[in-house]
């Protein structure tokens, strides 16, 4: 993994500095923090939601066949 990262790091190191403009979203504000935490929570919830919802559904199907855990 380190071999492909070296050219990427070299390209990033050669980039010129661009000063912030009107279209730049500041990353040092509380709004950015709230948005970042919201995205992390939503993605995390969507990652675990299928596993949490399939357990009771599978249990209902197996319970209908007379099997219990």
Q: What's this model, at a glance?
A:
With 69 residues, the chain is mainly α. The protein is 70% helix and 0% strand.
Structure description:
It is a single chain. With 69 residues, the protein is mainly alpha-helical. It has two helices and no strands. It is elongated. The model has no long low-confidence stretch (mean pLDDT 89).
Total DSSP E strands: 0
Mean pLDDT: 89
Terminal-residue CA separation: 44 Å
Structural class, judged by helices and strands?
mainly alpha
Low-confidence stretches: none
User: Which value, in Å, is the CA radius of gyration?
Assistant: 23 Å
Q: So how many helices?
A: 2
User: Beta-strand percentage?
Assistant: under 5%
Largest sheet: none
Helix fraction by DSSP (H/I, runs of at least 4): 55-70%
| Broad shape | elongated
The SSE string, one letter per element, is HH
């Amino acid at each position: 993994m380190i071999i492909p990262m070296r050219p990427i790091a070299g390209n990033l190191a050669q980039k010129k500095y661009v000063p912030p403009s009107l279209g730049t979203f500041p990353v040092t504000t509380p709004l950015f923090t709230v948005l970042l935490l919201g995205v992390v929570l939503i993605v995390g919830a969507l990652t675990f939601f299928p596993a949490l919802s399939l357990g009771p559904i599978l249990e209902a199907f197996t319970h209908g066949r007379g099997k219990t855990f």
